[in-house]
Amino acid sequence: MAKDVAFNFSGQESIKNEKLIYPAATRNQEPILQVLKRFLICDVDSVEDEESPLFLEIASGSGQHVAHFAPHFPGVKFQPSEVDDSLLGSITYYAENCKTKNILLPKQIDICKKLSSYGFEENSVDYMYSANMIHISPYACTVGLFENAGSFLKPDALMITYGPYSKDGVITPESNVQFDASLKARNPAWGIRDITDLVKLAEQNNLTLMDTIEMPANNKTLIWKKN
């Protein structure tokens, strides 16, 4: 029997008490996957292998991204996380229905706190990933993201961030200028962050910007490497 489907006030499609479907995540998940295929390396075929790498997603939202990515990397353990407990049910739905069974149940993580608070050891994470969090959260969350990446990623491991960014104080195109204004109208602590500022923050946390990849809809994927 089909589930009941509705749209909530933010335009996201939801299936009652189960999964959420964000139209934006549906649109961008495949372009992001193509980027991940360039950078994720896994030499094992199953998460049962003790060498299976760990991919930690911060701010998983609905859980759609990790659900889309995981089947393409069956040897990678995907750990979703979210600070908003109202989203954990949706993420759990996607994890439990992943055919490759390589998505762990979500952790409720506040990225402003050290990941050791949630059972992670320093230098233990192979990949960190965060999409559309940096501009839709206070800057303290970005600081926490980079500080945790600097401490908990393995040496030479990668952090991958996705979203709109400005460069040298300039936001382009005009649609992103308007988007930035709308974010700040909702919450003055939100807003599009500048790559130049992020590079400085990265350097303070033993990270280097390795690549900048242009994405659809005026977004970018940034690849950060731990030194």
TrEMBL record:
Protein name per the record: Methyltransferase-like 26
Recorded family membership: Belongs to the UPF0585 family.
Pfam family, one: DUF938
